[in-house]
Design brief:
single chain; alpha/beta; Nucleotidyltransferase, domain 5; 2 domains; five-stranded mixed beta sheet; globular; binds 5'-O-[(R)-(carboxyoxy)(hydroxy)phosphoryl]adenosine; binds zinc ion
């Protein structure tokens, strides 16, 4: 019988884990070995399904997850050289995300765990992104500062020696990924906007068209990107069609620079003020090539250790969910069979800390 979240179970004997992620528009499954190393990382993207709508359509996302989840999970096991019966546990994203999309993963994970008679844990998607910083380098040091930059989050944390997190600051309005996506939409680029701006900006000059950078007040760990989006809108409105087309690469480069320079500046300010000597940057926006280059250059010049996960661990994936779930299972946590998807799980994060998120 499964044990509920408030009753930590007896010691879990580490074995292979299957991670499942269906919070938004990627159906993903990943198998970890008993020692936590990644054996497979399978991602079925739904970009083609949503592209013509210019954003993720929740109902279509749920349907696409239903269609793919069995195949993606079986492929993850096959690539890992595992049989279903080799699994010792299952980790699934419980939230935050799209309710209907999360439900597919949570119910599939529970059914699988029940059939195999193994434990299942629900994992916060945010916790998964944070865990991705240690996937490639399990020895990455603590204490460190973690910047989570995705479509829904722009959060700076301090993670102390024992792994506990303290929120230093977050965005007051749009997340960095949202700023990329909305900017791309204004520029008439394809969905998803972040990678489209990243590609186009390589052909432009970031200094030709300057955009405002919002640092709020000195030393603040908070972010704000809504003014930047408005600045782009006004710029475009002041241009005729011909000059919009002629300057689109410079516009993309200038807009991107305004986002990434603030992310870099604030991350390093947080590192300095917290006394940490290491910085991890995770989430979809950490795939941005300009952000990665600036972070790497600055880390080298300041002799800081930097964790920038490989691209396949930046955007949504299940290896990060399996890794966070493994920590929870090792700590004795199990979900009860009535575990439900929780679309707004992030609100709990600041309140309770690390392990109560696994329920
Ligand atoms: O982590 P993620 O895959 O999903 C969420 O948890 O939100 O992040 C998605 C976000 C999107 O806003 C997407 O445009 C952005 O990450 N993104 C990028 C890049 N790749 C993905 N933003 C800038 N440059 C990229 N190369
Ligand atoms: Zn994500």
């Amino acid at each position: 019988m499964m044990i509920s979240i408030d009753q930590p179970a007896s010691t879990w004997i580490p074995g292979p884990i299957l991670g499942i992620e269906t919070s938004c528009d990627e159906t993903a499954a990943s198998a970890l070995a008993a020692d936590g190393s990644v054996l497979s990382n399978v991602i079925a993207s739904q970009h083609d399904v949503h592209q013509r709508f210019g954003g993720v359509v929740p109902e279509l996302a749920s349907r696409a997850h239903v269609e793919s989840i069995e195949r993606v999970s079986a492929t993850a096991l096959q690539q890992a050289g595992l049989a279903w019966t080799d699994l010792a546990g299952i980790a699934v994203t419980q939230g935050p995300g799209l309710a209907g999309a999360l439900l597919v993963g949570v119910n599939y994970a529970k059914a699988l765990a029940y059939a195999l008679n193994i434990p299942v844990v629900g994992v916060s998607h945010l916790e998964g992104h944070i865990a991705s910083a240690w996937l490639k380098d399990p020895a990455f040091p603590l204490p460190c500062v973690v910047l989570v930059v995705s479509g829904g989050h722009t959060h700076l944390y301090y993670k102390d020696r024992s792994g506990h997190r303290r929120l230093l600051g977050a965005t007051r309005d749009d997340a960095a990924g949202e700023a990329f996506d909305k900017g791309a939409q204004l520029l008439g680029l394809e969905f998803p906007g972040g990678p489209a701006i990243d590609r186009l900006a390589r052909q432009g000059n970031p200094d030709t068209i300057a955009f405002p950078r919002s640092y709020l007040q000195n030393g603040s760990h908070e972010f704000s990107f809504s003014g930047l989006k408005t600045a782009l809108l006004y710029r475009l409105q002041a241009m005729d069609e011909q000059s919009r087309v002629a300057n689109v690469a410079d516009l993309a480069a200038g807009y991107q620079e305004a986002i990434v320079s603030v992310l870099v500046e604030k991350s390093f300010t947080a590192v300095r003020s917290s006394g940490a000597r290491a910085l991890a940057v995770v989430g979809g926006v950490s795939a941005n090539s300009r952000l990665r280059a600036l972070l790497q250059a600055r880390a080298t010049s300041e002799s800081l250790q930097l964790s920038l996960p490989p691209l396949s661990y930046c955007t949504d994936n299940a290896a990060m969910i399996a890794a966070a779930g493994r920590q929870a299972l090792c700590a004795g946590f199990r979900a009860s069979w009535d575990m439900d998807a929780n679309a707004s799980l992030s609100r709990l994060i600041g309140l309770f800390g690390l392990f109560c998120l696994f329920g």
